[in-house]
What we know:
Blueprint: H1 8-20, H2 23-30, H3 34-48, E1 53-55, E2 60-62, H4 64-91, E3 96-103, H5 104-121, E4 125-132, H6 138-141, E5 145-149, E6 157-163, E7 166-171, H7 173-179, E8 205-210, E9 215-219, H8 229-237, E10 243-246, H9 247-255, E11 260-261, E12 266-269, E13 272-277, H10 284-304
Parallel strand pairs: 3-4, 3-5
Antiparallel strand pairs: 1-2, 5-13, 6-13, 7-10, 7-11, 7-12, 8-9, 8-12
Helix pairs in contact: 1-2, 1-3, 1-4, 2-3, 5-10
Amino acid sequence: MNNNDIENSDLRVFAAVVRKASFAGAAAxxxxxxxxxxxxxxxxxxxxxxxxxxxxxxxxxVSADGExxxxxxxxxxxxxxxxxxxxxxxxxxxxxxxxxxxxxGFGRNVVAPAIAQxxxxxxxxxxxFEVLDRLVDIVAEGFDLDIRVxxxxxxxxxxxxxxxxxxxxxxxxxxLDRRGTxxxxxxxxxxxxxxxxxxxxxxxxxxxxxxxxEDVVVKVTGPLSTNHGEIALQWAVAGAGxxxxxxxxxxxxxxxxxxxxxxxxxxxEANVWxxxxxxxxxxxxxxxxxxxxxRHLACDNHCFS
Length: 305
């Protein structure tokens, strides 16, 4: 084996293939073609003199030698990232690539504009931002940071609260005129509700807290449902039913009178968190990004209070 034949970029490609268990999945994550990923893995296998994967037409399985190489590769890449972070820290200039994820609505409307401002302020940063309709396994999927709405946070991750938030029940005046205003949580089951299958939210089940008291769980149904919160909010504004939506999202419609909060004593906690792996606890680029988002959301939070 010639050590000079191994490049750090090849180790990153290899690590991505292991995480995704797929050449095509790794290529999509890295912004490369599957053919290029396959070529770099072949180069790495030749340099090491071992087969890293068992390949079939349906899947890619890491070999025993590949498992050992993967463990060492993670150590090498982590050390290299730490080196760049230390240099960036001394220079006071965060640099390098940052993979950030968030949910559809909050990601598009709130996080995306903030990230654009972040990169404008720190041009040595390159941010790849993805919005997803599911809870992200940031370690397995190779993300550095997830901006998460809700309290479902794995214990092995670091979580920093960026903004206080809760979900509220609301509906359009036209709907309430037509169907009446619920006076108790139990009445929700008799109304047209707008369930959302979104990330950590169980579909059709609303878990609500009455003040500082116990949680109340209610099963809701309706003729319309979706996996996108913005669509459900549009339907609610159009008078289609009752929606459970974050205050940051519903507040503009409340201010314009398009929606009315109902059962105001009942809410669902849904704070905004920056979630990242333990290995990035001292990362300068992650810290700069999280600090920036916290300041940005603190300004926005005045509009929602």
